[in-house]
């Protein structure tokens, strides 16, 4: 009985470690996001194979996960979207500093 309990605990711990290690990189960016200061400004981040796709009312843009941020490449320049775990928000560059987006539930 004791060895059965020990075996069950060992298997359970292995499963927890395995499942947490299989989390896809960049999955924290997935979902629909809305600008905290301007609710009409929103976009959605979805997976597109190994990359990401940002869908907004103005169109679709590709992005890649790099160094803990989503790198969005435009025609003239690129920008990084940064995830803030403590507040579950995204920071994006704007004209006058960073723009903060919150996740829609």
What does this structure look like?
- With 105 residues, the protein is of the alpha+beta class.
- The chain has one domain (25-103): Beta Barrel (Lipocalin).
- The chain has one helix and eight strands; from the N terminus they run H-E-E-E-E-E-E-E-E.
- It has an eight-stranded antiparallel β-barrel.
- The radius of gyration is 19 Å and the shape is globular.
- The termini are far apart.
- The model is unreliable at 3-10 and 12-22 (pLDDT under 50).
Strand and helix layout:
Elements: H1 2-21, E1 31-35, E2 42-48, E3 51-56, E4 59-66, E5 69-73, E6 78-84, E7 89-94, E8 97-103
Antiparallel strand pairs: 1-2, 1-8, 2-3, 3-4, 4-5, 5-6, 6-7, 7-8
Short description:
The protein has 105 residues and is α+β, with helices and mostly antiparallel strands. It is built from one helix and eight strands.
**CATH fold name, please?**
Lipocalin
Q: Judging from the principal axes of the Cα atoms, what is the shape?
A: globular
| Radius of gyration, taken over Cα atoms and rounded to an integer in Å | 19 Å
The domain count comes to 1
The largest sheet is: 8 strands, antiparallel, barrel
- Beta-strand content bin: over 45%
Helix and strand composition category: alpha+beta
- In sequence order, what are the helices and strands, one letter per element? HEEEEEEEE
What's the quaternary structure here? single chain
Overall mean pLDDT stands at 82
Distance between the termini: 45 Å
- Which regions contain 5 or more consecutive residues with pLDDT less than 50? 3-10, 12-22
CATH class: Mainly Beta
User: How many H/I helical runs?
Assistant: 1
Provide the spatial order of strands within the biggest beta sheet: 1-2-3-4-5-6-7-8
User: Percent of residues in helical segments?
Assistant: 10-25%
